Amino acid sequence: MKNPFKLMFQAVLKSQQERQKKIAISLALARNYLYEDKGLDSLHPDLKTKAERLIARMEELNKPIMVYQTYRSAKEQNDKYARGRTTGGSIITNAQGLQSYHQYGLAVDFVFEKYWWRPPTSDWWITLMKEVEKLGLESGGRWKMRDYPHVQLRPNNVTWKELKPYFEKVD
Questions:
Q1: What is the pLDDT of residues 82-138, one digit of tens each?
Q2: What are the CA-CA distances from residue 57 to residues 72, 84, 152 (Å)?
């Protein structure tokens, strides 16, 4: 029979480690917000490094990309979510405010230099998706509602559902 004290200690330790991961993400985001960081500087440090490597790699492949958007506020996300639902246009996202990794500095959208969302062939998006995945990042190109420009990092597999309570407004 396993030692119940050892099991309890392991459970508490694991809980603390999980909490520390979420706090580290929160602290990185708070720093970016306080200093009004923009572009790649608004991203979690691990994502920033990988995004810079991705930009360099796509340049090597003669399919240069540029950053379109990094951090996005919950209000901006809600505005995007409303599009095609309560405002004009087509639906462009399934994520409401605090349901997107953009709100946590864990996502970046890329477009192709000169071509933006319309590269010469769709193969360019496939190449981008493969390079994203080589870096251990998640590509929106794999989703049911394809979002090839979207790239995100899930450090330690932390989800937006786990982060959301840290950022919800308290009345």
A1: 999 999 999 999 999 999 999 989 999 999 999 999 999 999 999 999 999 999 999
A2: 25, 35, 17
**Strands of the sheet with 150-152, listed across from one edge:** 65-69, 107-112, 150-152, 138-139
Helix (H), strand (E) counts: the chain:
5, 4
User: What is the reported pTM?
Assistant: 0.81
Cα–Cα dist 54/58, whole Å: 6
Q: Show the DSSP H helices in the chain as ranges.
A: 4-34, 45-60, 74-82, 123-134, 160-167
Residues comprising the chain, all counted = 171
C-beta atoms surrounding 39 within 10 Å:
14
Distance (Å, whole) CA 103 – CA 71: 6
